[in-house]
Amino acid sequence: MFGDIMGMMGKIKETQQKIEDTKKRLDTVLVDEQSSDGLLKVTLTANRAIKSVTIDDSLLEDKEQLEDYLVLVLNKAIEKATAVNEAELAAVAKDGMPNIPGMDGLF
């Protein structure tokens, strides 16, 4: 019995390390998004840190339009990055969790 608990604790600790390693790796995974006309482009990491923003000069003439573009494109990019982040972390967590009866539906 105690061996099972110790084994599960070791597995959980190993999974925690894999999650931390995955989070670090996600800092290097880039997600690109752009407006439908290509006038605004953003790049984020899968951990949702903005790496670059490219704005076409024509958008600099209309502050309101630029603000609208930024909100739309950044929200789309964050949504994509979040999906990548959650999928990667869920996969690591699911693979690393011990088989605990009744807990299989949680992951």
TrEMBL record:
An annotated GO cellular component of this protein is:
cytosol
Q: Say which species the protein is native to.
A: Flavobacterium zepuense
What is known about what this protein does?
Binds to DNA and alters its conformation. May be involved in regulation of gene expression, nucleoid organization and DNA protection.
Query: In the UniProt record, does the keyword Nucleotide-binding occur?
Result: no
Q: Quaternary form?
A: Homodimer.
Q: What is this protein called?
A: Nucleoid-associated protein FMM05_02090
Q: Which InterPro entries does the UniProt entry name for this protein?
A: YbaB-like_sf, YbaB/EbfC
Q: Which UniProt keywords apply?
A: Coiled coil, Cytoplasm, DNA-binding
Q: Name one GO molecular function term.
A: DNA binding
The record's NCBIfam families line, in alphabetical order, gives: DNA_YbaB_EbfC (TIGR00103)
* Pfam families per UniProt: YbaB_DNA_bd
Residues forming coiled coils: 5-32
* Chief subcellular location: cytoplasm
The UniProt entry's sequence similarity note says: Belongs to the YbaB/EbfC family.
Keyword Phosphoprotein on entry: no
Q: Where in the cell is it found?
A: Cytoplasm, Nucleoid
